[in-house]
Amino acid sequence: MTPDHLNSDATDPGVYRTLLESTRAIPWRIDWATMRFSYIGPQIEDLLGWKQSSWLSANDWAERIHEEDRQKTVDFCISQSQNGVDHEADYRALTSDGDYVWIRDVVHVVRRADGSVDSLVGFMFDITERKQAEDKIVQLQRELEVLSYRDSLTNVANRRMFDTLYPVEWAKARATGEPLSLVVIDIDYFKHYNDHYGHLQGDDCLRRVAQALDAGASRSRDLCARLGGEEFVLLLPATDEAAARNVAERCRKLLAQKEIPHARSGVGRLVTISMGVGTIVPGADDDAHVFLDRVDRRLYHAKSAGRDQVCAAEP
Predict the structure, then answer these.
(1) I want to staple 298 with a disulfide (CB 3.0 to 4.6 A). Which of 45, 183, 224, 276 is the partner?
(2) Does residue 268 contact residue 262 with C-beta atoms inside 8 Å?
(3) DSSP 148
C-alpha cells in the first residue's frame, strides 16, 4: 500500500466513524450555538440503555445525571466551556432502568478562527469499577482510622483517642462555661488476678470491666478509654461534680453485677475498682494536664484508703 493510499484512507470520514465506534469510550459532539448533539456514539445504548436517537440536546444529558451530582456538574461544565477551557467531569449518569453508572466526561472546546466557540467534543468513559475500587480504599482507610483510636483488647477507645478528645472538650468547656469531669479508674489487685488466673483470663477480665465502664458512661459525648494496663478514664463533658460521682458509682454497681471472681483480692472475693473523680469549669489560667494529675492523685488516694471506692475530693 502506498503512502497515497494511506492518506486517502485516513481522511475518509467512514474510517473515523469506524474507529470512534469500535472503542469503549463514547464519542460525542454538541453544537455550541444550538446546544444540540450533532453526534453521539452508539455505545451509549449498551452503557446507559438510552437510545442513541434520544440524545438530542444538552438538556437530555443534564436530565440523565444523578440528581445529587446534576447541578454542580452542569454548572462546572458550562462555566469551563464558556471560558473556552478544556475540562473533565466525574458524575453518576442514570441508566434507563433507574440504576446509575460512574462517567468521566473529557471535554474539548473547539474554536473558530476568530476565537469564538464552535462546538464541544469529547468522550465519555465508564469509570464505575475504578470508583468502586476508590470507594473501597476510602472505606478501608476510615476503618483503619477507627481502629487506630480503638483499644484492640477491650474495644473501648484507646489512649490516643483520649489524648485527642480531651483538649477539644477542655477548650469547649472553657468557651461555654460548662463543667468538665474526669473519672480515672484502676482495677484493684489486678496483678494478683493475673498471677492467679493467668493472662488469658486477665484479658477477659479487662474486657468485662471495660464493658461495665462503657455502659456506665452512656451519653453520646461521654468517652470511656483504656489508658493502658488496668487503668481506664471516663471523659464526661457538661457534667457537674454530683453527676460525675453518680456515673462513677453506677460503673461500680454495673461491675459488681458481673460478679467476676477474684480469689486474690485484698478487698473481697470479686473484682472491684478504685476511682478518682474531678470536675472543673476551665478558666484561662487552668491547665488540662494539671487537672488530670489532680484526678489521678485522687485515684491513688482511693487505693491507699482501702480500694473499692470513689475519691472525689483532695486527700
Answers:
(1) 276
(2) yes
(3) H
The string of pLDDT tens digits covering residues 72-130 is: 999 999 999 988 899 999 999 999 999 999 999 999 999 999 888 999 999 999 999 98
Question: For residue range 204-221, what is the model confidence (pLDDT) as tens digits?
Answer: 999 999 999 999 998 989
C-alpha closest to that of 313 among 280, 285, 277, 287: 277
- Global pTM reads 0.62
Note if 178 is an active site residue.
Answer: no
Domain borders along the chain are 3-133, 151-311
∠ Cα 215 220 222 (to 5°): 65
CATH topology of domain 3-133: Beta-Lactamase (3.30.450)
Cβ count within 10 A of residue 233? 26
Q: With beta carbons less than 8 A apart as the criterion, state whether 256 and 263 touch.
A: no
User: CATH homologous superfamily for 151-311?
Assistant: Reverse transcriptase/Diguanylate cyclase domain (3.30.70.270)
Residues in the chain: 315
> Which of 178, 230, 259, 314 does the annotation list as catalytic?
230
Q: Which of 226, 229, 315 is nearest to 278 (CA)?
A: 315
